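Feature request, filed as a ticket because there's no other form

It would be nice if the structure record came with a short human-readable summary line next to the tokens. Right now we just get the raw output. Example of a typical job, pasted below so the devs can see what we mean:
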Amino acid sequence: MNKIDFWVMLLSDFVSIALGIYIGRKLLSRLFTQREKNAEARSAEIIKNAELTAENIKKDRILEAREKYLKLKAEFEEDTNRKKNILITNENKLKQREQQLQQQAEQYKRREAELDQQKAKLDQQLESIGKRREEAERMRQQQVEALEKIANLTADQAREQLIDALKAEADSRASSYIKSVVEEAKLTATKEAKKVVIETIQRTATEHAIENCVSVFNIESDDIKGKVIGREGRNIRALEAATGVEIIVDDTPEAIIISGFDPVRREIARLSLHRLVQDGRIHPARIEEIVAKTRKNIEDEIVEIGERTVIDLGIHGLHPELIKMVGRMRFRSSYGQNLLQHSREVAKLCATMAAELGLNAKLAKRAGLLHDIGKVWPEEAELPHAVLGMELAKKYKEHPEVCNAIGAHHDEIEMTSLISPIVQVCDAVSGSRPGARREMMESYIKRLKELEELAMGFQGVLKCYAIQAGRELRVMVDAENVTDEKANTLSFDISQKIEKEMQYPGQIKITVIREMRSVAYAK
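Raw output as currently delivered:
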């Protein structure tokens, strides 16, 4: 190949390349122009859509704002109207109240004027009464002077003669009364002598009184006894104050003596000690808590005893209050005889005797069980126990024959049915068994109860317990109403009243206890 052909080929290649480049550039330029137009069109469309969306959002926000404005405006107007109505109502009430006050003020003025008139009248009447009194005194003095002239005696001399005449008449009546009393005493001397001898014999039976007034609580060791006593005896004092019995801790090994005339109190103290020893926590607050729970349990036990008794005897339809009183008989003695056992025995005797005589055995048994129900009535009453029992039986809708038998078994009322003498006879049979009763025990317990009731009559006394066989009276007072000085005066007043109103051997120690407690709660 020569040079000319070479250059021609080279030139043709160059021209082809240049032409390709030119055509490529044109094509790229046209492609880029088309894409730019498409992008501008899309951008314009997006901007238009965005403007439309923004306009719609703006319209929605404006509508929401307008609705919220209207709602707030309506609420504001409603609240304003309501308050306005309230103000108008209050204003009307104030006007009415003002009118009422004005009317009352006018009434008070009229009343004041009437009172002034009445006062003036009363002043005139008092003045008139004073004048009449002076005139009456002057007339009385004139009459006395006239009588003194007629009788030739002064008023003092006439008074002395009248006193002498009354003394002579009183001496004459006293002499005749003493004579009749002596004659009556001669007629009843034998009976009274027997009574005195029997009471004298009974006074020597001290072990019977101890059996009825003392309970023994057994403990395991002296360490437990020390816990029961507490520091400086504070636990013993707390237990005595809560239960009303006397706790005697002496050298007797493994035993603590509980002394008190009320069997219920002794039982509460014994059970409380048992629970405290088992629990191990013995302090005044715990003692009060345990005693309260035990007292509630004893009440439940009393109801259970009553229910068990009436079931055993086959008595039905008894009122719950009467059942409770029957259970309370378990902790009551009559002349040293357990009242529940005595009543059960009388009920069985009455049923047997009524059956032998062809009478209603069920009514007789019912009357025999309830004949001494008046002895366990918790409230103090002035009626004999037979009449009180009859009233209770009537109150709880018992049969009239049962009520009459209860009231007549000591001849307080007239017997109107054949069951009444049966109950009276069976009561005497049960009580007349050898060793069944000890009358001194009953009079002893009655004296202790009277001692407690006498002290409870004073203002400020919360609790009162007779202990040490009635030789000491412990009185718990309200610390807020009774000061230390008043406590001293109270002990003296109680002692003076006991001396005036009661008969007792030896002397009685009155101890007034005032305890101040401050309690607060952390919340």
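Something like this underneath would help us a lot:
The first strand starts at residue 214 and ends at 218.
The mean pLDDT is 78.
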